[in-house]
Design a protein that fits this description.
about 100 residues; alpha+beta; about 60% helix; globular
């Protein structure tokens, strides 16, 4: 999984290759507590902090807010969540069972 941020006027790419089981648990927890259709500023902070957590604090919340285009923030958060949950679905064969 990767994210690109503009930091100090330079595009920087950050990669997270290992998704722990604890991070999966955190993903499920956050997905249930946040209303994606009517997100509050506090919920958005929670989601951005979660992105920072995924990438092991290689950047800050402010780096995300200042380094990503507004139209890309929610799709980036959603992509990260889907990648984490999707890896589990593939590993457990959930997609095959739903056919």
């Amino acid at each position: 999984m990767e994210i690109k941020l503009l930091i100090d006027d330079k595009e920087k790419t950050f990669v997270s290759n290992f998704i722990s089981a604890r991070l999966l648990r955190r993903t499920l927890e956050i997905s249930k507590q946040v209303n994606f259709n009517d997100m509050s500023p506090e919920e958005l902070d929670t989601m951005v902090d979660f992105i920072v957590e995924i990438f092991k604090s290689k950047f800050t919340r402010d780096d995300v807010y200042d380094g990503i285009a507004s139209k890309e923030l929610i799709p980036t958060i959603t992509k990260c969540i889907n990648e984490i949950v999707g890896e589990v679905a593939i590993a457990t064969g959930v997609d095959e069972k739903n056919d």
